[in-house]
């Protein structure tokens, strides 16, 4: 059994609706950022230099592909995106934008159904509160993959193809992925092949002329990444995993996500968008800009090029580190620095100006609710808990530039005991939950 809360958590309806309504604008902002390769390179060059084996290689490969195949805006691209929020003083603030391997869409649907059953079965009184609909989440994710699949077949004059799920060696989250795989086949008749990056290197081929990607002789329409977001996914004796990523990115297959989308979801980009003029570079609608900026938390740069405000925040973090979180360019949970760890990291580096691969973020203090949390099918404990809301949204833009998909898909709630710093479910810190409004 997946880690879960026994019962749903209450959540303010206005803030849930605000987060849901921001799905399409956030997606559109992401697409425009990812399509501006020169801006991405400028923003990430410091982080790339400080983290050459991962962020550096991602950025280098992105620019190599741009030179070979043209800008991202000339290629089809698909995103299964999850924007994470925490409540602070009764309003939502964005924690991060997950652009690669955004997980638990399948299990979130099941948890919502489990909680709905328990409420009915035991006639639980939630004082007239209602559960927001989440049954269509997995169907929405499958639909976005299908739209990209069908568009690929149409554009390339191909009758059939498979979708590759790019997974980790010894994948531990197969149950969530299998729900999506089953929805693709039962709803749309599309078959999935699961492969690691190393297996793709050995089995996949690209036609030199057409750039059609095939796997054991079958055409590949979409490469959906549930790996490739952490250095460990590329840790092999040779560069086979990196070469596999290059083979896929150069092909005509639709990437979910592209390298551009992955880089646009880094913490450094999030921090740069928060600066004056950041969002405005990519968005002209003043109301949309206001709505996006309204949910930004305090974010500050570290490393070379720190502004006066950045240096002030870094100095405060040395005195009151409990007010901040230090984040690297990593996904998957377990990489952040909290409290005294921040001060120690800065001292170890010889100062904040030597930490280009990190950013500072204000530490949010969400409201606490009592919860009973389950792990391994057993009660892990009971006590005060805090929650983080994830809003799923899909975007598909064709090679013609047509925005064929861009909408809210559903939600995820992760709940953990108060006092636990990290928030990943797969990494063992949080549990899956649902909400009543």
TrEMBL record:
Its cofactor is Mg(2+). Substrate binds at residues 82, 100-103, 171-173, 177, 226-229, 414, 425-426. It comes from the Eukaryota. Signal peptide: none annotated. Mg(2+) binds at residues 96, 98, 331. Pfam families: GSH_synth_ATP, GSH_synthase. ATP binds at residues 96, 267, 327-336, 338, 388, 416, 422. Its EC number is 6.3.2.3. Keywords: ATP-binding, Glutathione biosynthesis, Ligase, Magnesium, Metal-binding, Nucleotide-binding. It catalyses: gamma-L-glutamyl-L-cysteine + glycine + ATP = glutathione + ADP + phosphate + H(+). SUPFAM superfamilies: Glutathione synthetase ATP-binding domain-like (SSF56059), PreATP-grasp domain (SSF52440). Belongs to the eukaryotic GSH synthase family. This is Glutathione synthetase. It comes from Triparma strigata. The lineage of its organism: Eukaryota, Sar, Stramenopiles, Ochrophyta, Bolidophyceae.
């Amino acid at each position: 059994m997946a880690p879960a809360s026994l019962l749903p958590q209450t959540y303010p309806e206005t803030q849930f609706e605000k987060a849901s309504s921001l799905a399409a604008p956030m997606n559109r902002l992401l697409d425009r950022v990812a399509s501006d390769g020169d801006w991405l390179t400028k923003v990430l060059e410091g982080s790339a230099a400080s983290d050459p084996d991962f962020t550096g290689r991602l950025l280098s490969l992105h620019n190599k592909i741009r030179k070979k195949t043209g800008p991202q805006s000339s290629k089809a691209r698909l995103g299964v995106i999850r924007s994470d929020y925490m409540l602070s003083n009764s309003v939502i603030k964005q924690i991060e934008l997950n652009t690669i391997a955004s997980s638990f869409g399948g299990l979130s649907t099941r948890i919502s159904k489990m909680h709905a059953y328990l409420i009915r079965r035991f006639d639980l009184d939630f004082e007239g509160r209602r559960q927001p609909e989440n049954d269509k989440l997995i169907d929405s994710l499958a639909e976005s993959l299908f739209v990209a699949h069908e568009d690929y077949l149409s554009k390339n004059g191909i009758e059939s193809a498979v979708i590759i799920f790019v997974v980790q060696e010894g994948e531990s989250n197969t149950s969530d992925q299998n729900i999506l795989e089953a929805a693709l086949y039962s709803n749309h008749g599309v078959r999935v092949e699961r492969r690691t990056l190393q297996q793709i290197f050995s089995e996949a081929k690209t036609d030199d002329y057409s750039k059609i990607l095939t796997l054991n002789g079958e055409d590949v329409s979409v490469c959906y990444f549930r790996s490739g977001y952490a250095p460990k996914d590329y840790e092999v004796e040779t560069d086979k995993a990196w070469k596999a990523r290059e083979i896929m990115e150069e092909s005509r297959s639709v990437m979910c996500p592209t390298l551009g989308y992955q880089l646009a979801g880094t913490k450094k980009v999030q921090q740069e968008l928060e600066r004056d003029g950041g969002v405005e570079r990519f968005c002209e609608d003043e109301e949309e800009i206001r709505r996006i900026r309204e949910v930004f938390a305090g974010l500050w740069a570290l490393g070379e090029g720190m502004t006066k405000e950045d240096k002030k925040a870094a100095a405060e973090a040395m005195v009151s580190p409990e007010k901040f979180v230090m984040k690297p360019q990593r996904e998957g949970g377990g990489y952040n620095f909290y409290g005294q760890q921040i001060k120690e990291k800065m001292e170890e580096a010889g100062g904040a100006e030597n930490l280009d691969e990190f950013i500072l973020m204000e530490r949010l203090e969400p409201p606490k609710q009592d919860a009973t949390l389950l792990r391994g099918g057993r009660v892990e404990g009971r006590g005060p808990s805090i929650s983080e809301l994830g809003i799923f949204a899909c975007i598909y833009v064709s090679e013609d530039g047509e925005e064929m998909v861009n909408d809210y898909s559903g939600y995820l709630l992760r709940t953990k005991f108060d006092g636990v710093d990290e928030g990943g479910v797969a990494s063992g810190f949080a549990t899956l939950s649902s909400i009543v409004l």
